[in-house]
């Protein structure tokens, strides 16, 4: 049985504002094993990126992060000093950010930026680091790697910059990679190439991968497990097959209805939509946050929402005990 790389229980992220406290992430639970891909999916503002940044320890000092359990390879991340966390981050756990043009430093060459992490965490010479960087650029599909190392970020296309970010995350051969919407700014053809690359690298290096996305089409191609987030909570989680075959939360069904299905959705036929907007999470938040947008809402939705088991590891938060099918 594969070992558990990351174990998160009761993760919260609170942001103090002038009008009160924004409860951006509320009681997140998930676990990830070596060799698995977890996709965290949901609308913009649901807390996906903040969850990732909290795990990586990259949130500002004013932002309050809490958790009942936050363990990476058995180590309690909550007990680590900033220096210890820095030693772990970039070495055993790495992150691929959403927009590489703002993540890469325009004043340094690609080679210098790739070598920095390796030289920080390993005792290697600049020449050895450059050789490793060139090898990884080739592995992520960049040709003429040696010449690319001398270039600056603005000299590369968006797809090449994203491949550089992937190579940078792999420099120290980490056990966990968190990819925060790595295909958002890319065209469809390049998106498919990047996703295929991530899947291939995960299998080859037997690492754990968390992919943050709002695109369920991406999830269907790459995920082993799925966590659906809404208003700072995971409202449904389970295997990709369980989520797509038997969605049990109205929000998950709403997201799936927005996707055209080959062979079923006719050309020109309107797609589904979810009415309303994500509610404010400033101040006290009670009941189901989705109830103002849900056709199935009733008085019970304003009370404490139970966590239910649909089957096996398939969990969802809803007052309805049975799967919702034709309704909605």
UniProtKB/TrEMBL annotation:
Q: Which InterPro entries match?
A: AAA+_ATPase (IPR003593), ABC_Ni/Peptide_Import (IPR050388), ABC_transporter-like_ATP-bd (IPR003439), Oligopep_ABC_C (IPR013563), P-loop_NTPase (IPR027417)
GO BP annotations of the record are: peptide transport; transmembrane transport
Listed GO molecular functions? ATP binding; ATP hydrolysis activity
One Pfam family, short name: ABC_tran
Transmembrane intervals: none
What membrane topology does the UniProt entry give?
Peripheral membrane protein
The Gene Ontology CC terms held by the record are: plasma membrane
Where in this chain does the record put each ABC transporter domain?
A: 6-256
Cell location: Cell inner membrane
> Could you tell me the keywords of this UniProt record?
ATP-binding, Cell membrane, Membrane, Nucleotide-binding, Transport
NCBIfam families found in the cross-reference section: oligo_HPY (TIGR01727)
Q: Which family does it belong to?
A: Belongs to the ABC transporter superfamily.
The protein's name in its UniProt record:
Peptide ABC transporter, ATP-binding protein
Q: What species is this protein from? A: Roseibium aggregatum (strain ATCC 25650 / DSM 13394 / JCM 20685 / NBRC 16684 / NCIMB 2208 / IAM 12614 / B1)
């Amino acid at each position: 049985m594969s070992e558990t790389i990351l174990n998160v229980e009761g993760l919260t992220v609170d942001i103090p504002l002038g009008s009160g406290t924004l409860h951006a992430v509320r009681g997140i639970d998930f676990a990830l094993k070596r060799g698995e891909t977890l996709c965290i999916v949901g609308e913009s503002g649901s807390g996906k990126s903040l969850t990732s940044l909290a795990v990586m320890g990259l949130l500002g000092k004013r932002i309050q992060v809490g958790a009942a359990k936050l363990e990476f390879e058995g180590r309690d991340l909550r007990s680590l000093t900033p220096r210890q966390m820095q030693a772990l981050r970039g070495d055993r756990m790495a992150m691929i950010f959403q927009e590489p043009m703002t993540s890469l430093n325009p004043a340094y060459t690609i080679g210098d930026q790739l070598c920095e992490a390796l030289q920080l965490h390993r005792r290697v010479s600049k020449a050895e680091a450059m050789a490793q960087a060139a090898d990884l650029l080739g592995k992520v599909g960049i040709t003429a790697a040696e010449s690319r190392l001398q270039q600056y970020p603005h000299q590369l296309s968006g797809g090449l910059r994203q491949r550089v970010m992937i190579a940078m995350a792999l420099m120290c051969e980490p056990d966990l990679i968190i990819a925060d919407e790595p295909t958002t700014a890319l065209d469809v053809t390049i998106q498919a190439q990047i996703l295929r690359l991530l899947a291939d690298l995960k299998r080859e290096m037997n690492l754990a991968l968390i992919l943050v996305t709002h695109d369920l089409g991406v999830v269907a191609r790459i995920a082993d497990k799925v966590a659906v987030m809404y208003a700072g909570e995971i409202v449904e989680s389970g295997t990709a097959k369980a989520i797509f075959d038997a969605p049990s939360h109205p929000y998950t069904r709403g997201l799936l209805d927005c996707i055209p299905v080959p062979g079923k959705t006719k050309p020109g036929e309107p797609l589904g939509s979810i009415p309303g907007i994500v509610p404010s999470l400033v101040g006290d938040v009670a009941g189901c946050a989705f109830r103002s947008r849900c056709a199935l809402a009733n008085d019970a939705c304003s009370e404490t929402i139970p966590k239910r088991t649909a089957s096996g590891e398939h969990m969802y938060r809803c007052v309805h005990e049975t799967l919702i099918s034709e309704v909605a």
